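Inputs:
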Amino acid sequence: MIHELASIYLLSYPTVLVYMLQSTEYQVKPYLKWVWRTKNFTAVNQRRDLDRTKAARLLLLALRLGILLQIAAGVWLIYLGLYSDLTGGVLFGAALMLSYPIIWAHLAVIPLVLGRWFISAPAEQQQIAAAERVFAAHGAVKIAVAGSYGKTTMKEILNTVLGEGLDVAATPANKNVSISHANFAKNLTGKEDVLIIEYGEGAPGDVARFTRLTHPTHAVITGVVPAHLDRYKTLQAAGQDIFSVAGKLKGKQVYVNDESPDSQPFIKKSYQRFSGKTALGWKISRIKTGLDGTGFVMKKGKDSLKLHSGLVGKHQVGFLALAAALAIELGLTHDQVKAGIAKTEPFEHRMQPYQLGGAWIVDDTYNGNLEGLRAGTELLKAVEAKRKIYVTPGLVDQGEETEAVHLKAGKLIASAKPDLVVLMQNSVTDFIQRGLKAGRFKGELQIETNPLEFYTNLQHFVASGDLVVMQNDWTDNYA
Amino acid sequence: METIAVIFGGRSAEHDVSIVTALASIIKPLELTKKYRVEAVYIAKDGAWYWDEKLKDIKLFTSGGIQDYLHRTQPTSVQFDGGMTLVKASGIAGRKQTRRIDIAFPAMHGTYGEDGALMGLLDMAGIPYVGCGLSASAIAMDKVLAKEVATANDIPVSKFMTFTKAELERQPGEAVKNIVKTLGYPLFVKPAHLGSSIGISQVRNDTELRHGLEVAAHYDDRVIVEEAIPNLIEVTLPIMGNDRPKPAMLEQPMTKPEDFFDFDTKYLQGGKKGKGKGGSKGSKGAQGYSKIPAEVPEEVYVRAEAIGVAIYKAFGCSGVARVDMLIDEKTKRIYFNEINPLPGDLYAHNWNRAGVSNVELVQKLVGYAKERHTQRQALTTTFSTNYLQQF
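Outputs:
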């Protein structure tokens, strides 16, 4: 208790506050919620330290100056109370000196709110309006990629495969909100054949807004799962927003992942479904997946394509097949498609296999949804190993569905029959444990109190012949 | 939570190897189990004991800061109070800080540690400790006694001769003459009690032999001279357990015939010396110099494994040990070479290949220590007599 209280009076306290702001991407609500639930401010920075950007340095300077001024004012009032008979001077001065951590934790957001209202928001609006004109006038095939999961993977697959024969531009990394789209538009030459735009939904109305901005001609919907339910509240609301991308598009230009159970209520007859079995009229067979990648055959009439990708997991087949089929529709040759699919490699922290000593680690720590978790557990089932280990802290932003989602997660994990399950001690651990029990998990359960220590010392926990699937990782603001 | 004292350093030529074993292969994995309170107990080269959290930091040793630390720190006392308690000055108003030890984890190599001396002390304290007991350690660390135990158990050894340091100093020429007449060249000259290949020479003529004897006698008061096995394949086998020992993987050092397994090759060159082809199968452990599994015919592999386990049992080893063997590639004959009762880095790289993680390894070893201790506790070592009443 004393240790926790003392943590707000340490010299490092302002840096911790700025770190918390930075980690929540300067969003006021998540920052304040984090501040309010934090008891010990010395234990906040577990994963990384403050990235001292210009904004962070300015904010830190302002905080320190403000705190110094408040302390000085407190000292002055105490002085006046003691030597100039100022009534209540000592009391008020002491209160000022003691209250600065609470006051400045909240005052820190004021420049952000003001800055957003009066500077960045108007500037962003102008930029977005200019981008809307660029997208509207651009003659390329504009493919929007939306969904609760797999968006970046789908976008990268399309980019790699279509790029074999066409001039393709895609939104970078996971930059997938309006301002990122506007920045993307600024760099377009106007001569591109294909634009691929990822939609990063986070709250109701996001996808509809992205659609109005980017004027897609085609849409790929990767699937719907419980995600961002803290904002959407219900899966229905999330699904409606994601499927709003179909809006004015012709049904045939909307491609929906048929393997997503929660997408089903939103799929119209006119949409084109794709899966690990079929994509745009191509039949898929002979799927083989392992840690070296995934192979499959696509057939349509007399046409046959034997493809192999570096991507790991059976769940990737539908995405790869759709990209291949779309590429052929857009005029690429079979050889170009084969070469494009062969070039697709696992992306960092997304089903990325690597060896540690003699053990195979599948790093899927960027994943954060139930479908991804299903894919990870399927992989655990499919690959032979001396010992199978499954590691997860659970999923975030599941709102009211948190308990139900983690019970399902526990059952899914149990179904893969891992020898060892490693969970990170947090608010969802009990739910996963209950799911494991319900799924009759018979292996060993290890609960880690310090996730970072576990991840950084992984080499001490694994041995040759082990297969370790690590899914999701909670940043400090979720811990 | 049980307290484990990891004891390392010591008055041995292998002092530095011991530090790496303790910090990298024992303390870290033990702490990661979160099942034990782990105390670092460092024995300096002068024999003084120190107990401190700071001693868990390898940088203290690699930076040379340890000298400054030793200069300004009071050594720790060890209290034998029906167990073992570490005692040191806390620095606060002259108060003492104490820590009762539940289990000891020796990480000592060579003299005054691996040779049974520390095990004797821990036996006296009556606490469980990891690894071989006093007698197995003492015999294992004496290369001459070890060969005699192997011979008594019908396990072949290479021909050898032994000399005391005094004998070599008194009549060096006579010793050389006898060796050449009895064994011939090439030969290996070794200190009888050191590990980590310290002080070992491979000699091919009288000059090298004289020099080799001088070097070995510099480290030890007893020297052993062995004939070289022709068509040699060196292999080593880590084994763990008490009554039912389990082998890890047969490992083959990647040395050329003209090289041998010396300290430099093992620890300083990362296996570069004599590293041949087949690097893809090489394992990079603390020593990073070997093929796992050894590239020998399956029948030889199985036989070497059986011999290794037989040696382990014959020596009465418990916890963990590593058996080194020599194979004549042509005749397929397997010779016992030596046994190491506390292998450097616990041979964790080999156990990893055998499917045992570092964390599991230290936990298993602690389990074996407790099992042996329980068995020993059940033995009766005292009984009442009326002997004193006669006086």
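Remarks. Confidence is low (pLDDT under 50) at residues 269-281 of chain B. The domain at 160-227 of chain B is CATH 3.30.1490.20 (Dna Ligase; domain 1).
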